[in-house]
């Protein structure tokens, strides 16, 4: 098959081996697949994969790896020990996890689990979901990004007495904004240096957007939540004031620490960023403020399925995140363009 193949740190479109479905697996044809920042992190920071003992991904510079884990595909064939649940040509998607002989791999992040940047790839039949509506495949592929924000927003369970603050308006920040809006949280404050991202955040449901080059996001949050902070910020939580729930969606070293130092006492922080090179945190400040920091992890199957349904049914509109499509030959250049914060939230590969 043809694919945009990662090997030796370089991505190029060429021929590679066809995937063969094993027990419980489905062979599918890629219809659309989004380029995600985690694809770039995977190829740029192999040391991060080396430090991860979960076994979910496996970077091998000497093997062909076909990335791409945000996809819409159609059924082509089945491996052994499958139920053959759907007819050939049925559109499907899935949480990007492939069950293999020795465990589970993230689709698109190991040689044995090729992803949607190729003509064909494999799914675990038991995890796959039929696309239940006629939503275009390009938009269906964005659902996986929404599942991350949906998982964080659901786990956060923001109450009526809390005001959410989303730091970073890339795809995951936008998914958090959209999910918070759908779940009824608000007002939602979204923060990003890039004007186009702030505009997209508004389109996805943010009530207030902040350029941190002009105004501290914490000052803006305080003004929105309870007015001037000076009379109350040192009351050690004794007053019944709105609480802050921060969603860190940047993934750059120093951002999470800046949140710890800048946020209110008692803030709950959900860190989706996770810079591959690690970070340094002022834990004593976090302790004195009584902060609660929840580190990432991917969405559960339940959260993935819920968000997938929300997108396919149109209850979460992902159109503002969609930029443009490229073919396999355009993937290397599109990956470079995806590094630009001024670009669209999602460039979609259509093999």
TrEMBL record:
Presence of keyword Oxidoreductase: yes
CDD domains referenced in this protein's UniProt entry, alphabetically: Zn_ADH8 (cd08262)
Alphabetical list of Gene3D superfamilies matching this protein: Medium-chain alcohol dehydrogenases, catalytic domain (3.90.180.10), NAD(P)-binding Rossmann-like Domain (3.40.50.720)
InterPro entries, alphabetized: ADH-like_C, ADH-like_N, GroES-like_sf, NAD(P)-bd_dom_sf
Keyword Magnesium: no
Alcohol dehydrogenase-like N-terminal domain residues: 22-129
Record's keyword terms, sorted: Oxidoreductase
Occurrences of domain Alcohol dehydrogenase-like C-terminal (ranges): 171-294
UniProt-recorded name of the protein: Zinc-binding dehydrogenase
Native species: Actinomadura rugatobispora
């Amino acid at each position: 098959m043809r694919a945009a193949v990662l090997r030796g740190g370089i991505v190029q479109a060429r021929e590679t081996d066809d995937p063969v479905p094993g027990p419980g697996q489905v062979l599918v044809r890629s219809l659309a697949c989004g380029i995600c920042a985690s694809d770039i992190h995977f190829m740029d920071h192999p040391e991060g994969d080396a430090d991860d003992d979960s076994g979910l991904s496996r970077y091998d510079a000497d093997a062909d790896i076909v990335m791409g884990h945000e996809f819409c595909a159609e059924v082509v064939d089945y491996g052994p020990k499958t139920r053959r649940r759907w007819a050939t040509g049925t559109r499907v998607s899935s949480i990007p996890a492939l069950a293999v002989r020795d465990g589970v791999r993230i689709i698109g992040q190991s040689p044995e689990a090729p992803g949607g940047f190729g003509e064909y790839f494999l799914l675990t039949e038991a995890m796959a979901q039929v696309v239940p509506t006629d939503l275009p495949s390009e938009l269906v592929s964005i659902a996986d990004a929404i599942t991350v924000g949906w998982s964080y927003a659901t786990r956060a369970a923001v109450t009526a007495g809390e005001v959410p603050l989303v730091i970073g308006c890339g795809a995951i920040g936008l998914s958090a904004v959209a999910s918070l809006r759908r779940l009824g949280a608000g007002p939602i404050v979204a923060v990003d240096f890039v004007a186009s991202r702030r505009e997209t955040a508004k389109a996805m449901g943010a009530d207030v957007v902040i350029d941190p080059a002009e105004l501290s996001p914490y000052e803006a949050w305080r003004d929105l939540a309870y007015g001037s902070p000076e009379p109350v910020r040192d009351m050690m939580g004794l007053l019944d004031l709105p609480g802050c729930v921060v969603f860190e969606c940047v993934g750059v070293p120093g951002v999470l620490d800046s949140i710890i130092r800048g946020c209110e006492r008692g803030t709950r922080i959900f860190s989706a960023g996770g810079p591959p090179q690690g970070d340094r945190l002022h834990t004593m400040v976090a302790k004195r403020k009584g902060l609660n920091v929840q580190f990432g992890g991917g969405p559960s199957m339940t959260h993935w399925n819920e968000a997938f349904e929300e997108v396919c049914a149109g209850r979460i509109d992902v159109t503002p995140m969609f930029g443009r499509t490229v073919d396999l030959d355009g993937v290397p250049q599109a990956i470079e363009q995806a590094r630009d914060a001024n670009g669209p939230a999602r460039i979609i590969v259509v093999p």
